[in-house]
Write a structure and sequence with these properties.
Length: about 375
């Protein structure tokens, strides 16, 4: 593939930055623009779960080594129901993988690691300069930026979020629906240390849940589902400081296509869903790395066929998981105190559960 093709990346979140890293690693010279004035603030963890397949994807650039040095390795998941611990799942029960754990790291730290790598390669993000208009054709696309500059790009990689201008102007359908529930987020500094290797899932028999993600022994990310942010904070013991809090609603949508001519979509521009399962950022990084790999092989026409089925599958499975957490049948809640301890003692079942938690099924086909 000709490495001199002009590539414009719209969006400098984890997906766009990963695309820039991988394209540069393969010898391309991408240009990357973004609507914000800089990366995610360091005190806002946002997406924080980095799964084993993603660590494998980022190995070749050397980023995995840095992420491992900065992140927290979570090796156990304890599931509770109405305050009672039912079972603990250990990530070492997964089939052989180089990274038998989930890494937790604030999104801003992940972005800064990528930005530092790109800076070392002479690639800088053009902040406050998003794509405002695009017209695509068979040989590329004409693009206008917020600065007023108009450029011609051989390839446009749209990673500009759920309200993607690239997707809109490429005429790609955006199907799906809103979800009737709210999520609450809080990053909390604690007065007493916790075990930083253990994630807790707190289910309520009437529906809804709270997840506790350790970032350090004294820093905890709390995600509440169908509960207010204030309630989540008030029920967390030993809170010394509220570092950041937010709440949001979610939608389950995916693009009808992930490729239109020489325009390609990835990350939230191509698929959005709830945070249940910690799939979102990881899926976008896999989109980016897959695109770069295929382009380096001159096979970019295969991108949609590779990634759209994955996006559809993840959106559908995340919807099922979210529905189960929110409003599971009463019989399911009654069965959990028996079924979960049994699963934790059954090698086949516990391995399947742990592999699902770690997202091993998300490993891109070219990396297997």
């Amino acid at each position: 593939m000709d490495r001199t093709v002009s590539i414009l990346i719209a969006g400098a979140g984890p997906t766009g930055l990963a695309a820039a890293v991988e394209l540069k690693r393969y010898g391309f010279s991408p240009r990357i623009v973004d609507r914000d004035d800089g990366p995610t603030p360091p005190d806002q963890s946002r997406a924080l779960g980095i799964l084993p397949p993603t660590l494998r994807v980022l190995e070749a650039s050397g980023l995995t080594e840095r992420l491992l040095a900065e992140g927290q390795r979570v090796q156990r998941l304890t599931i509770h129901l109405d305050g009672r611990a039912l079972a603990t799942m250990r990530t070492q029960w997964a089939r052989e993988t180089r990274y038998p754990f989930m890494l937790t790291l604030p999104q801003g730290s992940t972005e800064r690691a990528m930005l530092d790598w790109l800076e070392g390669q002479g690639v800088s993000v053009e902040w406050n300069n998003p794509v405002t208009w695009l017209r695509s054709g068979p040989g590329g696309a004409e693009v206008e930026l917020a600065s007023g500059e108009r450029i011609r790009a051989d390839i446009v990689f749209g990673a500009d979020g759920a309200r993607s201008i690239v997707r809109r102007d490429a005429g790609i359908e955006w199907g799906g629906e809103d979800y009737p529930a709210r999520f609450a987020l809080a990053d909390l500094r604690l007065s007493k240390p916790i075990d930083p290797t253990e994630l807790h899932g707190l289910l309520r028999s009437e529906g809804g849940a709270t997840a506790l993600f350790p970032l350090r022994a004294d820093l905890l990310r709390v995600v509440g589902f169908d509960v207010s942010t204030r309630d989540v904070i008030d029920k967390t013991p030993n809170v010394a400081k509220i570092v950041w809090e937010s709440d949001f609603t979610v939608t389950f949508r995916h693009a009808g296509r992930m490729q239109a001519g020489r325009v390609f979509l990835a990350g939230d521009a191509a698929h959005v869903h709830s945070p249940v399962g910690a799939r979102g950022m990881n899926l976008g990084i896999h989109d980016a790395a897959t695109f770069a790999f295929l382009l380096s092989q001159g096979r970019e026409g295969e991108y949609e066929g590779e990634r759209l089925p994955v996006a559809r599958r993840v959106v559908a499975s995340t919807r099922r998981m979210t529905d189960f957490v929110r409003r599971r049948p009463a019989i399911a809640s009654r069965a959990l105190p028996i079924a979960l301890p049994l699963a934790a003692r059954t090698p086949f079942l516990r391995r399947r559960i742990v592999e699902n938690v770690l997202g091993l099924d998300l490993t891109p086909s070219w990396l297997r």
